Amino acid sequence: MLSLRPPFILKLPNLVPKMSLSDQMAAASISTSASALKHAFSDRVPIRSILCLPDGGASLSGQRVRVGGWVKTGRKQGSGSFAFLEVSDGTCPANLQVIVDASVADLGSLVQTGTCVQLEGTLKEPPEGTKQKIELRVEEVVHVGPVDPAKYPLPKTKLTLEFLRDVVHLRPKTNTISAIARIRNALAYATHTFFQNHGFLYIHTPIITTSDCEGAGEMFQVTTLISEADKLEKELVKNPPPSESEVEAARLVVKEKGEAVAQLKAAKASQTDITEAVAVLSKAKESLSKLEERFKLKPGIPQKDGKIDYGVDFFARQAFLTVSGQLQVETFACAVSTVYTFGPTFRAENSHTSRHLAEFWMVEPEIAFADLKDDMNCAEAYVKFLCKWLLDNCFDDMEFMAKNCDKGCIDRLRMVASTPFERVSYTEAVDILIEAVKGGKQFENKVEWGIDLASEHERFLTEVKYQKPVIVYNYPKGIKAFYMRLNDDNKTVAAMDVLVPKVGELIGGSQREERYENIRDRILEMGLPTEPYEWYLDLRRYGTVKHSGFGLGFERMILFATGMDNIRDVIPFPRYPGRADL
Ligand code: 4AD
Ligand code: MG
Fold first, then answer.
1. 69 plus 146 within the same structural domain
2. 112-157: pLDDT as tens digits
3. Of ligand 1's atoms, which has the minimum distance to the CA of residue 323?
4. Does residue 169 lie within any of the structural domains?
5. Ligand nearest to the CA of 548
6. Mean predicted lDDT score pLDDT of the chain
7. Containing domain of residue 274, as a range?
8. DSSP characters for 28-95?
């Protein structure tokens, strides 16, 4: 099909994030032959690699290409003699304009929104005065995946994000959700790049755990007891257990067959007769044991001493979905020094806010030989790196978000990437809030030393008082987790939260309590059982080390970067109370 051979493998702009976008485009324009732009593993040229060239694709004019995507809008023109299609393959926010002649294909099915098309044709510069720099004149329609417009749930009209949550399987086809997917991907890439560049080892911590990291009891339980009980209940209905008299009868049979064997032996019967009788006895014993086993089966969850018997559960103990990989990643920090984990975490809190999910992703670095100040420095450098990365590698998607969602989002990224974060102690923060109340500011939650800062307080500090990210540190020990290092005042712990505009708390972290007695006392003081934490205490018993870390809520970072309002729209498959589609 393509006569040109690629002179070299051209890297697509979005796939080489280490280069700035402009560098990538410059590289791409060295050789803008369409054959070089073909995707390595699929039969089409990604639309991004046409439209994201520095000249908008104009230099590809005259080239023959095959593209694939989905029709955003289509309209017949010239009394039905040709059609314009806007085609997106989700590789960039822009659509490729396509012109199809009625002589090439049935236009009626092509113009429907949502139709999948794979098209081959020649790229041409459109007439002067149109906003496109390049368009495709179709010569062959290779594939059509039709859509019945009467049934398609995503018509052309603008749909609300709330509506889209009801069609979570189709919403990636919308401009907003696909832009967020690309931004999310870029932030994940940036996260690994940042930590890898700084020598952190990526550790995969478990999803299923037997320890409650935050000690807050907000864990989802992992058990097979319920499904096993359900299965058994159904089985017992189909195949009822034996009655006591049936078991008794089977015992009698065993007794009789046993006696028969004894009699044969006493009568010195032939070996063949004895062997036969023994075989009959074994059969009777086997069927008795089966009956006895089934007789013991009781419907419902197994109990022992009046409590659920987790000893017979899948892991032979109670198990949960993790709320944080921190405790486990600490085991590696205390051995290989500088590590991070990045994975899904789960919280069974019944929060119906726009900032909480029941399943969310967390990035958790853990650094040995590091104190709270090192931790804050790392958090600040990481957030700045993420902001700069989006500006350098995802600018077209950020422009889309600025136009359609939050016009300040690009300026906010620039501000965060270049401005030092404010750092205030919790005590100072509370004083500031108290002053604000005196000055007439009204909060729903009362401000006094010792409270857990509410979202409204956090947002006041970062949005009104400082208008930039703020790190609040040294929180009262009473409101923080057991593993945070006690300060010399005996009242506060070496904790820190990074607060950012639009979101409030983006990061929570601390220096960890590395002193054995202190941490053991804290566990007891908080009424937690020590047994599940013995392994964690071992890290303090054997070669303890000063260490610190934090957790960044990945979806909160996306909210902050894009200006989206609801966390349910920045994760592909949101899980929250009452909802877990797909
Ligand atoms: O402050 P958190 O609870 O800290 C921890 O879990 C520590 N073990 C982390 C560590 O030190 N390694 O949670 C960390 C961050 C929060 O700052 C917030 O951004 C996010 O996780 N987060 C949530 N995001 C979405 N939905 C929820 N329900 C969240 N809960 C916390
Ligand atoms: Mg927190």
1. yes
2. 999 999 999 999 999 888 889 999 999 999 999 999 999 999 988 8
3. 6
4. no
5. 1
6. 93
7. 242-296
8. HHHT--HHHHS-TTSSS--THHHHTSTTTTGGGTT-EEEEEEEEEEEEEEGGGTEEEEEEE-SSSSSP
| Cα–ligand 1 centroid distance for 486 (angstroms) | 20
Per-residue confidence band for 24, with pLDDT thresholds at 50, 70 and 90: low
State whether 454 and 526 are in the same domain: yes
Domain match, 129 and 209 both: no
Task: Determine, yes or no, domain membership for 170.
Answer: no
Q: Are residues 206 and 131 in the same domain?
A: no
Ligand 1 pocket mutation pick from 322, 338, 360 by most atoms within 8 angstroms of CB: 360
Domain count, the chain: 3
Closest protein CA for atom 7 of ligand 1: 551
Q: Which two tokens stand for residue 211?
A: 């320890």
Q: How far is the CA of 572 from the centre of ligand 2 (A)?
A: 23
Q: Whose CA is nearest to atom 3 of ligand 1?
A: 508
pLDDT of residue 454: 95
pLDDT of 2 reads 35
Residue 474 has pLDDT above 90, yes or no: yes
Nearest CA to ligand 1 atom 28: 356
Question: Residues 268, 272, 273, CA angle at the centre, nearest 5°?
Answer: 60
In a domain, 387, yes or no: yes
pTM reported for the whole predicted model = 0.90
b/e burial code for range 283-315 (CB count within 10 A of at least 16 → b): ebeeebeebeebeeeeeeeeeeeeeeebeebee
- One domain for residues 128 and 257: no
Q: How far is CA 57 from the centre of its chain?
A: 35
CA of 13 to the centre of ligand 2 (A): 37
Does 517 score more than 50 pLDDT? yes
- For residue 557, is it within any domain? yes
